[in-house]
Each structure stands twice: as C-alpha cells, then as structure tokens.
Amino acid sequence: MNCIYNQIPDAVRSAGKVHKAILLRALSTHLRDATFEKSAAEVDALFDNLRHISLDTLVTLASPALWLNVHRLYRATDATPHFDVSLLITNLQAMAFDSYWHLLEGRVIDIDVPTGKLLLPSIGYQLRGRHLRLSCASGAPTIERQGRNQPVTSDTEALPLSVQSLPSAPSLVVGELDTSIFDDFSIEAARGHGIQLSEFAQQLVHSLNLIKHVAPNLANTINLSVQWFVPLRSADPSIHRSHSSMDLPHVIFLSPSDRKAELAEAIVHEFGHNELNAIEPVCPLVDGQDVADFYSPWRTDRRPLRGLLHALFVFCGVSAFLRALDHSDCARGSASSVRTRRVLTMHRIRLGLKQVAYSRLAAGGMSIVKLIQTAAEECSAELGEYTSIPPEIESHWRAWRSANPELTAQGPSD
Q: Are 36 and 76 in contact (CB under 8 A)?
C-alpha cells in the first residue's frame, strides 16, 4: 500500500513552490501598495543582497520563521495597525540571514534592531545590539564588533538559544519561544512543556528510526521536509497533543512521549497536514465559504469541510503507517493494539467519507477525495474481516448527533 502523501502530483508540488517564489518576489510591491514605502525599499535591498541565489534555492532553504514573517507582512496594511511593520522587516532580515548565511560569503546584511535582540534559530544564537552588521567569512556566520568581524560563536554578547540538532535527521528541535519565530497560539501551546530538549530529541530519534524501519520511503520524505520539531505542553501525560500551522511550513509541534509508536504516528499525522498545507494556496480544497457544520469521527466539535478533508487525508497516511507497523517485527508484543488502531482508523475514514459534501468541493478537493477513496478501499480490502462497526465509533456518533440534532450528517449504519 503506497502512502497517500506520495500520491500528490509533482506538478502540484511544483506549483506550490512557484507560489512561494512569487510571495518572495512580490513582497516589496505589496508593501508599496499598502503605503509602506520605507519597508518596501528595505525588502528590495535585502533581495538585492540575495540576487545571486536562485529563486528555487531561496524557497528550498527558507526557514519556517522566514515564511511566518513573510505571511505577516502580507497581512500588514493600514487596516491592521497591530502589526509593527518595521519590526517584521527586522525579523525578515534576520531570518533571511539565518537561512542563507552560508551563501553570503563577502556580502553584508545590516539590520536595525528596535528591540535590541535578534534571534537566529538555525545558527542557534541570540545577538544583542541596536544595529548589527552580519556576514559570512571562512564558512562561518560573523558579526562586526568595534570594526572587526568575528564568528557569531565567539561574540561575547551572543546568547545560545534553546535549540538542538537531531543526530539522525537534518532537523532542529526548537524550544525557544519568541514572537519573531512563532505565532502567539503556538507559543501559548508550547509554554511550560516541561521537558529537556535533549530528552525530547532522543524520543524523536527513536520514533523517526521506527518510521524508517517500517516505512523507509516515508521516513526519507519526512527527513527531507521537516525542519523543526517543537515540544508542546500536555496537561495530561495520557493525552498526546500535536498541531501544525499554515504560517509555519515544515514545522511539527508535538507533546513529548516515551511511547515511540505513539510519537511516530503523531509525526506521520502532522507531516500529512504540512503536505496538504503546502499545496492549498494553488490547489484549494473547498469552493466558497466554508462553514463549520460537518461531523468528523475524530472530533467532538463541528468541523468545516476543509478540516474534515484534512483529517481524512492525514489518517489515510496514518493508516498506511499502521499497516507497515502491523506487518513488521516491531509490532511484536503490541500486534493486537496496532491492529485495533488500524480497524478504528479504517472505520473512521469510511464514516468521514460519508460526510463529504461533493457539491462544495473545489477541483483540488475532489482530487484529494479520490485519493482518499482509493486508500480507503485498499485498507478495507485488507481488513475485510473486521466489518463490524466498533462500539467506539457508534458511541462517538451518537454523542455528536445528540449535541447537533439540527445538522445533516450520516451515521455509521446509514
């Protein structure tokens, strides 16, 4: 069974990258149209410094925090005065240096820093000062102090960030919570996670190795795509939490877990959201206004159609991972629980598909639903003997139906 994540057409993925390139190139024009002339000139100066780097490379190497601040700048207009555009420009310049410093040998980026502190998460340091001159020399990021360049790592005013590299993947574990690199929702969700980054990193290594063992192609795709893992707070250790953000591509937020299969499943799940988020700007899922009036077998609240499609898509990916785990030697001692999880996932996907309003789907949404239907059929064919609807599915449906009697939805036996 091929994972549904690998079935998104290459042309759609390429269009998603082109969309990101356009966002970068059109940013200064947008700012001028929004009457931020000084900020537009600063963006032009920044990209003039990066003109030797191809657009494809700029998009590929851009850090999640660079995209966060690009998205914020596009939302910054006279109608949204809560955005401090000058500070967003500072953040953009910092994240550009953080992303591309190794390609800036002999070039200089001057950054005015209103707050007096500048975070560089990929480099792993916070720099101090109101005006910073950054460059690259001898293959290292440098800062000018008293007229002399020195490596950032030798700067006595630099502070190490709460960031750690993963030994088995080109990803970072980021525990530094700052508005220059995260949105407010994610900061609040992560604050007080209560785990050492080294311990969380070790948990991630075990789970990523499990994915690599049972689904090597999926593991390789995850390694190539995910840039940051961020620990989340969970008030109840028995309840695992995770989320993703449209504004922060290539980032997975996860609460810690020493149960490697549970953490691995959450990684696969959130990776699926990232994959779908990446193509939505060029491949919308839903036509018109999307109202939260749908039943989802995974949630107790009303969901928009887009949210339902996301759930169906990512749980098809989870289903493929569970199948691989079920058929591997890693399932010894837990085969029954893995099989139960597979069966529940299969029945939830079937029930979720019943709720889809095809008349509201955009062309991209229809294509995604076809992939989901194929994946569901393959899953059902293999688990054909498990046709009885699990009681958990029935009870969840009845509770939702009772709380939302005015909405149209189909139950497991309909």
A: yes
Radius of gyration of the chain (CA): 23
CA distance 368 to 65: 28
Q: What is the pLDDT of residue 336?
A: 82
Distance of alpha carbon 63 from alpha carbon 249, whole angstroms: 9
Query: Would you say the pTM of this structure is higher than 0.90?
Result: yes
Alpha-carbon distance of 250 to 224, in angstroms, equals 10
E-assigned strand segments in 21-100: none
CA distance 302 to 276: 21
pLDDT at 77 over 90: no
Q: Determine the residue type at 154.
A: S
Token representation of residue 126? 């916070």
Would you tell me how many other CB atoms lie within 10 Å of the CB of residue 375? Answer: 23
Distance CA 339, CA 326 (A): 7
Phi/psi for 368 (5° steps) reads -65, -40
Residue of higher predicted confidence among 374 and 414? 374
* % of the chain residues with pLDDT over 70: 97
- CA–CA distance, 14 with 230 (Å, rounded to integer): 27
Q: Is 91 helix (H, G, I), strand (E, B) or coil?
A: helix
